[in-house]
Amino acid sequence: MKRTMSLFLFLFVFVLAFPVMGQQRKFLYPAKFVCGTSIELVDPLGPGVYKTLINVLNPTEQEITIRKKIVQEGKVGTFSDIRIGLNGVFDFACEDIFPDTVPVPAPSKNGFAVIKSDVELAVWAVYTTITPAVTTAPATGAAPGPQVVRIEPIIIGVNAAPASTKLMFNFNAVGSTLNTGIAIANVSDELGSPTTGGITFRLFPTGASPLTVTSTLLTSKQLGSGVNPDGTLSPGSTFAVLLSELLQAVEASESFTGYILADCDFPKAKGINFIADRGFSDFAQGYQALDITSAQ
């Protein structure tokens, strides 16, 4: 047992050392703003007072960090980080864009508030114009109101990580003299989108019916090590198990040759296996699992 645990400690380090491949997509929201007082014949806009309010909703169930900068003609600001809680809202108006100008700049100023995020957001801009000509309600009785515009994202990075991963261990063996060790790492935190999720193993023994070991079984049968009490694997964690344990969990014969699929409910899982003698004193073979997610 001590030798086996030493092997898995090696597996932990080896799997986590695999580089995270692929480009993560980013969401870029260019929200137009117009702020200040427009003076006729001096300002390109018509006369009036222009106000902009930009609302940003984090629709996810986790706290996120977005980046914001202000861009005007001939002037590009720098990004600043803003934290938004789960299902939280962040908004800013002309007074936040031009804090040194009270109450609003004159002549008016316009540009873009550029918002960058690793997750998709709901971004809306609310535009209000108060013109000298509109001092009373129109004849219809409808008072002039703000214009609300949804800001659509520009998606950067075409190789976005999918929400889950399918790993294939193409040869595994258990017998009187052989056993296979399997390790899977959750490296979704390295992608900027940490995700906790379960693992379902599907075993395909040669010449026999497939077997399934769910994430629930991993905990109820106390299989391997590394998962949470609910059978999920947290970001930055590694699950390690013997194939013989998986077979015992479904009361199958401990005689197995074939391939294994691992369905991981988190992006960019990494896996490795080692086939060795029963005592894990000599290695026979070891390889990195194939990521076949894109082949689905």
Characteristic terms for this protein:
296 residues, rod-shaped, 2 domains, 11% helix, Hypothetical Protein Tm1070, Chain: A, single chain
Provide an overview of this structure.
With 296 residues, the chain is mainly β. The chain has helices at 2-16, 94-97, 215-220, 243-249, and strands spanning 26-38, 48-57, 64-72, 75-76, 80-84, 89-93, 109-117, 122-130, 147-150, 154-156, 165-174, 178-186, 197-205, 211-213, 232-233, 238-242, 256-264, 269-277, 283-288, 290-291. It has 2 domains: 2-23 and 162-295, Sandwich (Hypothetical Protein Tm1070, Chain: A); 26-156, Hypothetical Protein Tm1070, Chain: A (Sandwich). Strands 1, 2, 3, 4, 5, 6, 7, 8, 9 and 10 form a 10-stranded antiparallel β-sheet that branches. Strands 11, 13, 14, 15, 17 and 20 form a 6-stranded antiparallel β-sheet that branches. A hairpin with a 2-residue loop joins β3 and β4 (75-76).
